[in-house]
Fold this sequence. Notes:
Number of helices: 7
Strand order of the largest sheet: 2-7-1-8-9
Strand content: 15-25%
Largest sheet: 5 strands, parallel
Helix content: 40-55%
Order of helices and strands: EHEEEHEEHEHEHHEH
Radius of gyration: 17 Å
Low-confidence stretches: none
Distance between the termini: 11 Å
Structural class: alpha/beta
Number of strands: 9
Amino acid sequence: MSKKGMMVVLSAPSGCGKDTVFKELTKIRDDVCESISATTRNPRDGEINGVNYYFKTDDEFKSMIKNNGLLEYAQYNGCYYGTPVSGVEDSVNQGKICFLIIEVQGAKHIMEKCPDAVSIFLMPPSIECLKDRLLKRNTDSEEMILNRIKIAEEEIKSSSSYNYIVVNNDLQKAVDDINKILSDELSKRNS
């Protein structure tokens, strides 16, 4: 019998390192992949259809919504973004651990629709630490950073609805903690 994979929802406030943690996981596990989102926005320079996103027209996207082809979707800045069901199902059926790295609202929809998904909330060590990280990035104005902090405080309130909370105070420890969660969850499912 072939091993079945699983879906993992990973959320964190902006600046908590979810993409870095995921990248580190891919270095130590060959069964990890990331779901590819669909969007109606135009591709940016260097982006490839089916690699970075599935680029769709408004009509194609609305058809996916109508035919239950999306696990979740949202509209930002006049464009649709969503998680296609087929890519996630294919990955899980191939024994992969398919990560959906998404914000809290999308995660909530997926956790309701797919109660067997493993949900992990990556927590900053403190709000002050998060503010320092965002300032060091040097990519946003002070006003934008304060807004991100306000959003982060709201997102952190949702963390109790996740299966696991991992504090990202030390990158290697956070990666090790998530790796252990993945191994434990897989052994439960495949025993």
